[in-house]
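Researcher: I'd like a structural prediction for the single chain below. Treat it as a standalone chain; there are no partners to consider.
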Amino acid sequence: MQAVKSKDTTLEKRLRNAMWAKGYRYRKNYSKVYGKPDVALPSLKIAIFCDSEFWHGYDWENRKYDIKSNRGFWFRKIERNIRRDREVTAKLKADGWTVLRFWQRDLEKNLEVCLRTIGNAVRKSRGRLLRSYHAGGLLP
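Model: Treating it as a single chain, here is the predicted structure.
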């Protein structure tokens, strides 16, 4: 487990490179935000997480039976990761953040769909900011 990276994974780099090419500017592993998202757009309050299937429990109810050794350890570990992901998502949403979570398979096979999802979130967030500025009398 020592060799498993927690940041700057191939998945994260691939997403960040694609985002940069589309003109998105971001913070990586942004520690000022609860849960330390893999990619954050702080001014728009968008947090993006790149979740691998194994560590974050993709289809866990079916896949957990694939684990053959040291089951107790892995069950506790992965189920705790799933709970933590839910806690982080709930806290960020309560604080007004948009939370996007992408599975490894989506980033590998459907990167363009992920980028469109991010683009939609950016447009929605910008519209929300514009409306709040306008409502506050900050814009003519």
